[in-house]
Amino acid sequence: MYLDVRNATKTYGSFTALDQVSMSLDEGEFVCLLGPSGCGKTTLLRLIAGLTRPDSGQIMLKGKDVSMVPTRKRGFGIVFQSYSLFPDMTIAQNVGYGLKIRGGDAQSVRRRVDHLLEMIKLPHIADSYPGQLSGGQQQRVALARAIAVDPEVLLLDEPLSALDAKVRTDLRTEIHSLQRELRLPTLMVTHDQEEALALADKIICMNAGKVVQAGSPEDLYLRPNTRFVADFMGISNLIAPDRLRLVAPELLAGQPRETGRQHLACIRPEQIALSRDAEGPARITAVEFLGNLRRIRLESPAGDLVAEVSGRIDLAPGERVRLEIAPEDCSWVEDDTSGVAA
Ligand code: ATP
User: Fold this and answer.
1) Which residues pair with 288 in a beta bridge?
2) pLDDT category, 338, cuts 50, 70, 90?
3) Residues with CB under 6 A from ligand 1
4) How confident is the model at residue 311 (pLDDT cuts 50, 70, 90)?
5) CA of 227: how far to CAs of 17, 64, 106, 114, 206, in Å?
6) Torsion of CA 332, 334, 338, 342, to 10 degrees
7) Pocket test for ligand 1, best of 33, 34, 42, 232 (most atoms within 8 A of CB)
8) Among the four 56, 184, 279, 341, which has the fewest Cβ within 10 Å?
């Protein structure tokens, strides 16, 4: 294991921000810490960076315990949400800062800086100051500065969240290709599930100071373990078995056998196909045009449901429909939210 967090706990007074959290990151891997505001993502990142001390637990880097090693000696590159460039230094001085304090000579620092500015596609701004750049450009520079020193791990704390939509997706693509090219082990904090799905090799989903599920983007989206993860990863139709019987009884065969915990069927909107049927159990209440797809809202004996189709449809509000769902597209999740049926 390249980076390994073992049973990290962090409390603030009587509040437990991290509760026995373990996670790992392999060589070359892009891992996203995903979860709602306040779940402990930033605390975990700061703890890995050495900016916060855990109450207990260990941070292992390449097999060595670095829990007591100060931040600057861990050799990590960090990019925060707000552009934390030095305002009185030029872009070249900002990017070259880490190299200079490590004793690099002026010429080789400048060569490396020029190369990095090429990589982030901003070759002509070496002599500009941060205040002259847009938010997206400043974040690119912050990224170049973090990469400059060949970090052991690149730590990104919501680096895209202050940017507007277009710049955000552009920079997301940029981060993705840079990370793949350099194979830099990267840990990114985000509360945006789409960002995590697009970037990560592995997503670690957190809630209330605990890791609730870790796995590939496909695992978390298509095979969530719990209702919390299913909801957090996107729109889902969550249906209790007694209600599922009323709209798609054939899916009940896949229900987990174990008793005790309540399980819900989880069906993503794009996994529901609709066909017009006057005797069908559901009725269309609205069709929303979303550009690349249409979202169809349904009223049914199983409660309100959502389906999504790409392309045109010949169905309209008021029509009755039958639902077709392939058994393999229905996953079963544990109802971890107080046992209330969907
Ligand atoms: P966000 O996306 O909002 O930043 P997060 O998942 O990153 O959320 P953290 O910043 O890790 O969450 O915070 C987790 C919890 O710990 C929050 O409830 C926060 O109020 C609390 N917390 C964090 N730092 C401190 C601190 N220095 N003192 C007291 N409480 C803190």
Assistant:
1) 295
2) low
3) 12, 17, 35, 37-43, 191
4) confident
5) 22, 37, 55, 48, 13
6) -10
7) 42
8) 279
pTM for the full model?
A: 0.90
Q: Residue 203 in contact with residue 34, Cβ under 8 Å?
A: yes
The H or E element that residue 321 is part of is strand 320-324
Q: Is 183 left (phi over 0), alpha (psi -120 to 50) or beta?
A: left
Domains of the chain: 3-222 (3.40.50.300), 227-339 (2.40.50.140)
- Distance from the CA of 64 to the center of ligand 1, in angstroms? 27
Distance between CA 271 and CA 308 in Å, rounded?
Answer: 8
Question: How many C-beta atoms lie closer than 10 Å to residue 256's C-beta?
Answer: 10
CA distance 208 to 38: 7
ipTM: 0.94
pLDDT one-digit tens code per residue, 136-164: 899 999 999 999 989 999 999 998 888 88
Contacts 24+ apart (CB under 8 A), 84-90: 84/142, 85/130, 85/138, 85/141, 85/142, 85/145, 86/130, 87/129, 87/130, 87/131, 88/129, 89/129, 89/130, 90/126, 90/127, 90/128, 90/129
Q: Which of 211, 209, 229 is nearest to 219 (CA)?
A: 229
Token pair for residue 251?
């899916």
From 39, 44, 45, give the residue whose CB has the most ligand 1 atoms within 8 Å, as the site to mutate.
39
Q: What pLDDT score was predicted for residue 259?
A: 65
CA 195 – CA 197 distance, rounded (Å):
6
43 CA to middle of ligand 1, Å?
6
Given ligand 1 and candidates 41, 81, 195, 207, which is best to mutate, with the most ligand atoms within 8 Å of its CB? 41
By alpha-carbon position, which residue is closest to atom 30 of ligand 1?
Answer: 12
Backbone angles phi, psi at 273, to 5 degrees: -100, 145
